[in-house]
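Example: Erythromycin biosynthesis protein CIII-like C-terminal domain-containing protein.
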Amino acid sequence: MGPSRHVLFLSRPDADHLYPSLVLAEELGRRGHRVTFATADPFADEEAAGDVVLLRCGRDGHAVGELPALAARGPVDLVVCEPATRDAALGLGVEWGVRVVVAHAQLPAGGAVAWPAERFLGTRAVYVRPGGRGTVHGEWVPSDPRPVLLVAHDDLPVATLLAAFDPADWQVVLADTGRLADPPPVAVLTPGFTALAHADVLLSDGGLPGIAAAVHGSTPTVLVPNTPEEHRNAARVAGLGLGVLLPKADLTPASLLRAVSRLGVDEVVRAALRRARSLVALAGAPEPAVDALEGELAAAVRAA
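Written out as structure tokens, the predicted fold is:
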């Protein structure tokens, strides 16, 4: 590692975007760099390792350059952003004369990539496995030994859940909705996968954040997709033996209970998930992405 530098991260305040970037920031901090991580509520209260300093700013990051707390940490040598904060980052990069790196939470869109049929990222892209962290929403533990179903689905009728799962047999946890009052058999959580570590089954729409979280946690998934992209994702998950696809046209309380109950005790699926988790861990880690960021820092020094 070269001399210590100051790296500024501009992050959208969203769990699916913030945590993959925060993993990189923490690794940079562990390597001795000064790292400032700017985001908005509620994630500015996150706890970060590696001496990373979290800075509260607006949602798009435009005002971060005016914050005295940032100026007090010294000149910035590199800005790491994501598509949602790219405009603010580019403006700061021009103002400060520093390089800007765009970190995508998933595969970048555009002509270089056709997903899922083809993946070609070129030499300027680094793949990093999903990070399994995040504490801003607090811990969640089951209140009793009942099996836990974690529901991360924006468009699933709550009435179907209540009809399908007897509260004496299942603890149903909603991970992503504030649309209803808290009926007795349902625990409503803040957004995110806080309860995933204790879930026996995940019920998802087939979005990439849920799939990544399920693989990371080796949690079997019942997928009820909405969009064409989610249908493709769900079919791929089912084809790999990591979960089951339940078409929305076939969704009833009985079919949902049957799919969840069978999957919850399917050891073949759990074994496949453990293998998939190992493969993902081998495919990438924070280290190669941070190596690339340090390469940008070194290139900036050479160009100065």
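Residues 214 and 295 are 32 Å apart (CA to CA).
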